[in-house]
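Entry 14. Two folds queued back to back today. First construct below, sequence then structure tokens.
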Amino acid sequence: MRVERVDASDARAVLRGLRGAVLGAGPAIALGADPDAALPSEVPPGTAVVVTTSGSTGYPKSVALSRSALTSSALATADRIGMGAWLLALPPGYIAGVQVLVRALVAGHEPALVTGPFRVAAFVAAASSLASSRGGVPVAAYTSLVPAQLQTLLDDPDPAARRALTRFVAVLVGGQALAPALAERAADAGVRVVRTYGSSETAGGCVYDGIPLDGVGVRIVDGEVQLSGPMLADGYLGDPARTDEAFVRDAAGTRWYRTGDAGGFDGRLTITGRRDNVIVSGGINVSLDRVERAVRTLPGFVDAVVVPVPDERWGEASVVVVSERGVGDLAEALRRVRAVVEAEVGVPARPRALLPVPEIPLLASGKPDRAALRVLARGDAPGR
């Protein structure tokens, strides 16, 4: 099947490509790939989109998603939260942005687009442009954000930002864990936040507020979260070994995606962290995801990121990188951080230091750039 590269930074170009790939007979589109890299000679039949993952936790992979996977995901979302008009505020080259556009196309509504770097004024204007009715019938409005965007809108002093948020029937928030304090602020402002969990390999979010969408299966194998359903990707282009490692079949023939996340499921999915985001400090395994969740409960630390650093005494330790505007007195802030981590996770998990920065660097997907933060933290003096 033929595939064409589309400029992943151009929302209108991505929308045009998706209109053909998902609704028509157009070629598959490739997003996020190196513009100088050669496109594959062919993709699996039925492929609509090839999305290159952000690589925030490892090796970037080109994920092949079929038209069926994308539309199954969009329809399952509509069954859960309703169908209507969508506003795109996420990068269109990543799966979360792609699915905003696919949901709009499936619903038959032209999406509102926020192009370029995220700005509050542009979001407010785009929200205002969404039609509230069609032929006298009310049209529900939806959008999808990452936590940093939600925080930016809630922090803005212009009340128009919060009014714009409250006009959406649901604001999907994914890409990373949502800090409890930020979730509470959104609820207090009258914003209906729906926390989503998923990845490029699952055509985006497929578990909402811990509950799988219709048709989605969840199982825990050796502590790892695995997912099944019609939204699964076909695999990784040009990498059959990695595909076979990530996508497995059970005895009944059901295909499962191994997420690499640790968690539990009792009808509601809980994620405890990445299985590979663990350090060994003084011989004790420490989940940095658990440390990060504890730190983010503190006022001013909702955007904090915990990264590993070498430590001469303990082998490995952690550093909390945080926006400097929320820190205040550094020594007192470190004391509070270490106290909450000790209470929630244990003494060996206490971070070694704080590293205030003007802004948390982000990937184009809106996730923290953990690789860049690790480099910054390794340059931090021990015991700061």
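Second construct, same run, same settings:
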Amino acid sequence: MAEDVRRGRGRPRDDGIDARVVAATLELLASQGFLGTTIQAISRRSKVHSSAIYRRWPTRIELIEEAVFPGLDTVSIRPTGDLRNDLRRFVRAYLKTLGSPAARAAIPELLGSYQAGGRTRSGEQWLGISARPQFQDILRAAPVGTVDSEIDPDDVFDMMLGAILAHLLVPPVSTRTRFVERSADLLLRLLRPVGSTEAVAEMGREAETVAGEPTR
């Protein structure tokens, strides 16, 4: 229902216009930054009248969100059942999406807008521009017994998103090497059922490593 209201009633929505507007938004974010990406500038570059843009996206913030948070649709992260490899592919794809020039220009300003109380989307609308559903698909495709049923996948996703944003936006964190591999390994540890064979073996290896290290 909310989506119908946002898109408006009457003539069918022209996906070609949507694509031109989104492309213009991404180009402007990358070249002019967040402040230069106004509806008027987007209208000029896309050759779409501003009134048509506002019919599709009631605010500039919503348009920019939809442009920079595509839900990884274009990356096509399809689960294979190999949890480690799927997590690695997912982290790499999400890192690439959020690390694009347009996203880097938009994210800090969007965070400031949210802090100022500019949030207007419902939870359902957010899922349309989020990679959260793809992450849950990966967990559902994992072999039985490899993901703890007591773990809330949203909690794991939120921790992963925070780590990715820190890696992209915080200079000391961005210098850490092998981010994708390390992140996938940590996600696996979080997701494993307590007491599983792999989890016990992992803890045993860690205990041996600690025992063999000199005390400080």
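Quick look at the second one. Residues 1-10, 199-204, 206-211 have pLDDT under 50 and may be disordered. The chain is about 70% helix and 0% strand.
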